[in-house]
Design brief:
Elements (H helix, E strand, L loop, with lengths): L1 H8 L3 H7 L6 H13 L3 H10 L1 H4 L3 H14 L3 H12 L6 H22 L6 H8 L4 H12 L7 H10 L3 H13 L6 E5 L2 E5 L11 H14 L2 H18 L8 H15 L7 H7 L4 H17 L1
Helix pairs in contact: 1-14, 2-3, 3-4, 4-6, 6-7, 6-8, 7-8, 9-10, 10-12, 11-12, 12-14, 13-14, 14-15, 15-17
Length: 301
């Protein structure tokens, strides 16, 4: 699950949704619900939660928090009170759950008052966030813009795609416009320099078979979930970093570099890069170049 947590921390919601498509375990479903909410699909998040409620009740404390807060975000206050009654009528679970339930009525009322007080973030505030050089602030602006009429913020997003110091944030901005199929030629600063690009004609990342195939190989060949989860996370960051370019590297070289770097990061003993390449019939210089690319990415992403 380290992969899903890492991807959520990096706001890679679409990828989390893709990876949890067929998941049935509680932890993965909680991540899926959060990711759906992150891309503005609150109703789908709620439907997913309801579909898997019995499984999610294995972590009742977290379920109550997520379920009630999701209903409050969607403005479903009456339903929040109804669901609170449902949880109150379940068999005793723990003192923590009882304390949470006892404070929920006040929590719902406070949120209801807040929302009806018309204190929602306006378009000017979103534009201000999009103009920020701070990564977290700009990312929140992109998330908010994605839940509004995206056309309202096109000028600010284009400026962000050219001027923001973080390549990851510039990539996320482009991915947002690709998702919304914006049919307009815009400027974008990629790893290769400034280019002109039409989001409606640009392929979204993580949709090709190559990513799925390589992820499955990492899981199968690394034979260690901690290593494969972290390696997939690094590789996902690389895909975003070079976007809209696609990965052209040989898969065996990619696997080698990701394996060796991940093991080094986790302080897991492995053969040296030279020994590993020799035993796998790989060119040492090629694998070392990729290793260095991924290592630099970890520092800056």
């Amino acid at each position: 699950m380290d992969t899903l947590k890492s991807l959520m921390d990096k706001h890679e919601y679409e990828l989390v949704i893709k990876l949890t498509e067929k998941s049935n375990d509680a932890e993965s479903i909680f991540y899926r619900v959060s990711a759906l909410l992150g891309v503005g699909q609150g109703e789908k998040a709620l439907a997913c939660l309801k579909e898997h409620r019995l499984e999610l009740q294995k972590n009742l404390l977290l379920l109550i928090k997520v379920h009630i807060d999701l209903l409050l975000i969607l403005g479903k206050f009456d339903e929040a009170y109804e669901e609170l009654d449902y949880y109150k009528n379940l068999p005793y679970e723990s003192q923590q759950v009882e304390e949470l339930l006892s404070g929920m009525v006040a929590h719902i009322r406070a949120e209801e008052k807040e929302q009806y007080g018309n204190k929602s973030i306006n378009d000017d505030e979103i534009k201000s966030r999009l103009n920020s050089t701070d990564k977290a602030t700009a990312m929140s602006g992109l998330e908010l813009a994605g839940n509004r009429n995206i056309q309202t913020f096109i000028n600010e997003i284009e400026l962000l795609m050219i001027n923001h110091p973080s390549q990851a944030i510039r990539s996320y901005a482009l991915m947002l416009l690709v998702k919304n199929k914006i049919d307009k030629e815009l400027s974008y600063k990629s790893k290769d320099g400034e280019i002109k690009i039409n989001p409606s004609k640009t392929k979204a990342p993580f949709v090709d078979e190559q990513f799925n195939r390589l992820s499955k190989r990492m899981i199968s060949e690394f034979k260690n979930p901690t290593i494969s989860d972290n390696a997939i996370s690094i590789y996902s960051s690389y895909i975003i970093d070079i976007y809209p370019n696609e990965v052209k590297e040989n898969e065996d070289n990619l696997l080698a570099a990701l394996y060796l770097l991940t093991c080094d990061c986790l302080k897991i003993k492995t053969p040296s890069l030279e020994e590993y390449c020799q035993s796998h019939s790989l060119v040492k210089e090629v694998v070392k170049r990729l290793y260095d690319v991924f290592a630099e990415l970890i520092k800056n992403f």
